[in-house]
Amino acid sequence: MDPVVRISLIFLGSAAIFIIITALLKGIILSKHKFICSQCNKEFYPKWYQVMFEIHFGEYFKIKCPHCGKKEYHRSIN
């Protein structure tokens, strides 16, 4: 195998592993944060897989409220 191809594959594999580990850590850390629903105003803790790849803007995350079921931008209050 050509050395350039080998180095490229190693680099891409390392980058993929880094992205996966970073996403898992983000999900685990944010699952310990308390969120408040923008619709029903109840507080909840999301599951780690809900916040792992979700869209966010500052402290607002687009996740589903377990109480009312709305998938809106909910604020992290921690």
What's this model, at a glance?
The chain is an alpha+beta fold and 78 residues long.
Give a verbal description of the structure.
The protein has 78 residues and is α+β, with helices and mostly antiparallel strands. The chain is 41% helix and 22% strand. It contains two helices and five strands, in the order αββαβββ. A five-stranded antiparallel beta sheet has the order 2-1-5-4-3, with no helix packed on it. Strand 4 and strand 5 (71-76) form a beta hairpin. The longest helix has 28 residues, at 3-30. It is rod-shaped, with a radius of gyration of 17 Å.
Which strand-content bin applies to the residues?
15-25%
Low-pLDDT residue spans: none
* Count, helices: 2
- End-to-end Cα distance: 51 Å
Helix content: 40-55%
